[in-house]
Amino acid sequence: MRPLSHSSITLYLDCPQKYKFRYIDKIPEKPKHFFSFGRSVHSALEYFYNVPAAPPPGLPEVLAHYKARWVSEGYKDASQEAEYFDEGRRILEQFHARHAPQFAPPFFAEYRFDLKVDGIPVTGFVDRIDRVGSDRIAIIDYKTGKSFGEDRVRADAQLTMYQMACEELLGLRVESLTFYHLNSLTPLTAPPHSADQVAGLRRRIVSVADSIRKEAFEPRPEERKCTWCDYKPLCPVFRADNAPLLAGSSQGLGERSTASAPPLLAGSSPDAAREEFHLARGTGRDTGGRGSTSSAPVLAAHMAAGNASGGGWDFGEDAELAALIDRYGRLLEEISGARTQAQDLSAEISSRLQELGGFKAFSSRYEANLSLEEKWEFSDKAKILDAIRRAGRWEDVLAPSAPLVQKLLEDPAVPRELRERLLRLAKKVTRPSLQIKKLEPETAPG
Ligand code: SF4
To answer: What domains does the chain contain, in order, with CATH numbers?
Structure first.
């Protein structure tokens, strides 16, 4: 089986379906700027430490390496990229000023490990290992991004995995574990993780490997995860036949889940969804959450084997595959057309019922029930978010949606100023909500 890494285990535990898309189907995720930034800074630090003896490379050399190896994918635009590039330069300047004067070459810079846990292959990279005395080591892993507390260093399974691998493969005792937060130049250090933590990790590795072997890839949807998931257009949870599952899980401010077409249908063809994904550059390294795109070559290989033209995909002689794609595309078009017709009919029935002043009507096979729902609509999203952020309630609406903001309005602990500000930005509307129910033959009128 494919070696497990800290990031692939975490991904599996987060959502097995997402793991399948990424590691079994080998569909790369979109590049993320924060991963690109992390990789760029890590590469410069590896260059700084990768010398056999003092002195280390000077700052101009480190910065030249940083510039040459800058990973520019995933940034929103040139200005965001420039901002991050400057932040990386600031980090490297300060890091160099602090660590070059007392430089000691590390035991390892970028230590790759491959070990077996109960026969299961496990792999990873440790950013830096320092020797402490003759039989002990210190493990250091660099982090960019948001700051964190020491409790994370004491509990993080990534460090447990590094400790387990280094002790087993190098035969040296781990003295300390450090996450070095680069943006603030703050090393946070904890003592080695306990035997219980290591045993727990081993059990987790075995259990994840077992589930992967059994092909247990059920989706585990949660608003927090699905909102930002690149695989949403392909995910069974968000397909047309599962549309009701969308409720409350993906809508934005002022949007209704039942009114929005599932992502695949929105684009009306499978190409629209597929083009959401890119052919990422493979790095050949699973970087434990640093945005590795090592699974990309499989898609890239398909592209090379077929006759890619104009960004399209052509598998030449495979008529059966072409027929399947054709059938699938036509079905999606039909579903999309049917959905539009159903929405139009729903609007017409609702309006006819309202005109007639009724809430219930029958055909020979169906019963239609109309109810009126009151809800708030929030039109100026930017102002709503700004108001919540200023009031320190950002955590409550991390993936902001109308129902969550509405919940915030009902929370008695919300400060009056925030509530009043939100209400000023909101509008109460009444919307018809129509349900269609199939009648059993004996209950149909007439
Ligand atoms: S959309 Fe949600 S359920 Fe589907 S793969 Fe992504 S995280 Fe998992």
So the answer is: 1-218+282-310 (3.90.320), 359-443 (no CATH)
